[in-house]
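Module 6 notes. Inverse folding takes a fixed backbone as the condition and produces residue identities as the prediction. Think of it as a translation problem where the source language is geometry and the target language is the twenty amino acids. Below is one complete input and output pair. Work through it position by position during the lab.
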């Protein structure tokens, strides 16, 4: 049997838009595992892989923060798989002593039980102060009141030898109770997810090393009607575990300009992942306006659009993707769920004409150049 090469695949489920799959506490991990098995090389972001207290390490999955994914899809950075990152901890000075200790104990546990390389640890000079907000679309977002404090702390960690950064910030406990209740019962948007993306984007843009965020919150009261998709956030004191596991094997981010300036560029590129290697991108219908998706569309990378409802409505119809021309059947594909998406990836990877799998099959027509 001929060995089939991996088909590097990009899986995007945007943060804070309430997708049925991927809008909760790591509930897209089973889909990611399936797509990783089909492709043998899945590139995805923390929103997909972070499950609060739950996680699933997989050698076929590359854990890449969202801003980094945008740069990767645009060809500005390449990904260098690594055996291990040295994960620095950046703790918000706004954490109460007991809450801070809980997070340090999680880090100690990940060293002792999982063998992760964690440290150094730095606390910011002042509280970072996070504000939670919600956009007109219904998606969550927010802002940082002390961004310079955040950057100075991150700079110190990088200078001290950290090759990746996990940042833990104190989030307000007085967020909208109704929003939180709806989310916990599977009917709302994660109100803290949007600003988490803001924080990690901000750090990666400044440092260009892997970064991810874990919110620090007082545990909520027990809810007997909890949706299973949120349960990963209910079974521990922190959400840090999954972040540390993801960052521990996150690929290095290599600037394209740095590669071009070196004499052994050709040999180096052979060991790196670039956007030129991508064989497919998988994204929810309604969430097609992101930078990474647009970059892939521009490069005619096969786009697998999955029915996975969220609050956004940037659809293939509104983007007029079905009007791209004769190659639309090859480059724009639709799946009702991630099971179908995995089948499409398998077909692409094995060179099976997807038209041959559907009925009816149209007869071939003689080409007419007039």
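Target side of the pair, the amino acids:
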């Amino acid at each position: 049997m001929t060995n089939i090469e991996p088909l590097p695949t990009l899986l995007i489920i945007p943060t804070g838009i309430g997708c049925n799959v991927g809008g909760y506490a790591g509930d897209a991990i089973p889909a990611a595992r399936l797509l990783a098995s089909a492709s043998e090389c899945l590139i995805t972001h923390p929103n997909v892989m972070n499950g609060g207290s739950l996680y699933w390490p997989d050698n076929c999955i590359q854990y890449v923060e969202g801003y980094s994914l945008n740069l990767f899809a645009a060809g500005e950075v390449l990904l260098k798989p690594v055996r291990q990152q040295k994960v620095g901890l950046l703790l918000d000075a706004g954490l109460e002593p007991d809450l801070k200790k809980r997070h340090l104990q999680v880090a100690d546990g990940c060293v002792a039980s999982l063998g992760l390389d964690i440290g150094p640890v730095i606390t910011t000079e002042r509280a970072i102060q996070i504000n939670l907000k919600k956009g007109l679309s219904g998606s969550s977002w927010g802002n940082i009141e002390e961004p310079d404090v955040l950057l100075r702390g991150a700079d110190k960690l990088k200078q001290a030898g950290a090759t990746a950064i996990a940042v833990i910030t104190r989030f307000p406990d007085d967020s909208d109770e109704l929003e939180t209740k709806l989310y916990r019962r599977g009917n709302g948007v994660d109100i803290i997810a949007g600003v988490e993306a803001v924080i990690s984007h901000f750090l990666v843009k400044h440092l260009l090393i892997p970064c991810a965020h874990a919110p620090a919150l007082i545990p909520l009261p027990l809810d007997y009607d909890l949706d299973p998709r949120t349960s990963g956030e209910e079974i521990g004191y922190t959400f840090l575990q999954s972040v540390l596991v993801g960052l521990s094997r996150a690929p290095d981010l290599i600037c394209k300009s740095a590669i071009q300036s070196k004499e052994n560029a050709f040999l180096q590129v052979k060991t790196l992942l670039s956007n030129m290697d991508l064989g497919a991108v998988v994204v929810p219908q309604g969430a097609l306006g992101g930078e990474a998706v647009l970059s892939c569309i521009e490069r005619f990378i096969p786009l697998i659009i999955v029915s996975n409802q969220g609050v956004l409505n940037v659809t293939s119809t509104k983007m007029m993707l079905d009007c791209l021309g004769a190659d639309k059947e090859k480059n724009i594909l639709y799946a009702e769920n991630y099971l179908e998406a995995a089948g499409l990836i398998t077909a692409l990877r094995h060179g099976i004409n997807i038209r041959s799998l559907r009925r009816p099959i149209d007869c071939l027509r003689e080409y007419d150049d007039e």
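Reference fact for the lab report: The domain at 82-251 is CATH 3.40.50 (Rossmann fold).
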